[in-house]
Every structure is written in C-alpha cells, then in structure tokens.
Write a structure and sequence with these properties.
Blueprint: E1 3-6, E2 11-15, E3 18-22, E4 27-30, E5 41-47, E6 52-57, E7 61-65, E8 68-71, E9 82-88, E10 92-97, E11 102-105, E12 112-115, E13 126-131, E14 137-141, E15 144-150, E16 156-162, E17 173-180, E18 185-189, E19 192-195
Antiparallel strand pairs: 1-2, 2-3, 3-4, 5-6, 6-7, 7-8, 9-10, 10-11, 11-12, 13-14, 14-15, 15-16, 17-18, 18-19
Length: 203
C-alpha cells in the first residue's frame, strides 16, 4: 500500500496492483481493465471542492469522480511517475514527479505550471512537494531539499537549497517522508531523520 485517501464515505487505497475503495461494507477494485493508466499507484489525494480523487500512477495522473476514471491531460508527465500529491493555498495541487519536477495544478481547469531545474530545483526527480503555514514549498528531491517561496503569479521569489553544505549528510529524500506543522518540520532522508531549525526564531 503506497497511499490512502478518505472522501467522507469510505477509504481509497493505492497499491502496486491497482486502486481499491472500501465503504465499510463492500470493496471495489479499479485497474487498467477499467481505465487506470497503470496498476502501480504511488500517491492519492481527494479534493473535496470538486469531489474528485487524484491518482498518481507510475505513468500518468488519473482521476476518479462518481466512479468514472479520467486522465489529466498534461503531455509532459505522460510516462512519468507521479510520486506525491498535496494541496497548496486551498485551491491548487502540488504534484511531485519522477523526472519532470513539480507541477502546480488547478484541479478544476487542469491549468498547470512547472517548477524544474530550469527554475532552480536541485533535481527534477521529486519525492515530495508540500507547503507550510506560510505557503512556502518544501520540495524533496534526489539531491536535497528546496525551500521555495512563490509570488501570486507562481514565480519563484526565494529558493534555498539544503544539501551537504548546510546540514545534510545524506541528500536523497524518501517518498512522502515529511511532517510539516507551524511548530516543527521533519524530513526523512536516506541516512536518517532530520529536523529543520529556523535560526530566525532562535534567541
């Protein structure tokens, strides 16, 4: 099991052999035979605003709404794993991909914007992308963590890279291995667990 999501009525379960849904009584399975792009599921996120489940597979981003499977039409992530899906500013989604960086996606219109190494990411192989209470992005890659601030046009205004030079003895992050709250931030790296210390808050 690689991902779980809840829609208020039941539980979605992402596995290496398809997508399951359990409502407390009946278990239903979705796979390539009924529309998924791949059976390998890496990430799940249920969007309450449009009652849609977003499914990150090993080759594309699928959706499930009212029992029907769809595919989000983003050419650049075809045949690319979607490893992480999280909300951003209440109305957008952050997708971490295995090769095309971060995608900022409008879940209603599918309009999107990429953040990649061209914009300053350490790597385009992204294990997680999530935001904190100040809407800073924390992007875990195979080459460390980027701490990014965007303006209202989704352009980068700040970009700090954490790697060997500023505290990490290992740099490759692990998929969805993070905990972010206003009081503390923890990240799972290949060589252990790291806590972020904000020096601006220290006496």
């Amino acid at each position: 099991v690689a991902g779980l999501a809840f829609d208020g009525k039941g539980m979605w379960i992402g596995t290496g052999n398809g997508l399951g849904y359990y409502d407390g009584k009946v278990f239903k399975t979705y796979n390539t035979k009924n529309g998924l792009s791949a059976n390998g599921i890496w990430a799940l996120h249920y969007c309450k605003s449009n009652e849609t489940l977003f499914v990150g597979t090993e080759v594309a981003l699928n959706t499930v709404k009212a029992g029907k499977i769809g595919t989000v039409p983003i050419d650049a992530i075809e045949n690319t794993a979607v490893l992480s899906i999280n909300s951003y500013t209440d109305s957008l989604l952050l997708l971490g991909t295995g090769g095309t960086g971060v995608v900022i996606l409008d879940p209603d219109t599918y309009k999107h914007k990429f953040i990649t190494t061209r914009e300053g990411l350490a790597s385009d192989f992204v294990y997680f992308a999530a935001s904190d209470e100040k809407d800073y992005l924390w992007i875990g890659t195979e080459k460390g963590i980027n701490h990014v601030k965007l303006d209202r046009h989704l352009e980068i205004t700040e970009n700090l890279h954490f790697d060997y030079d500023n505290g990490l003895t290992g740099v490759e992050t692990n998929q969805n291995a993070f905990y972010i709250s206003p009081k503390s931030k923890y990240f799972g790296i290949v060589d252990g667990l790291y806590e972020y210390n904000d020096i601006t808050k220290q006496d």
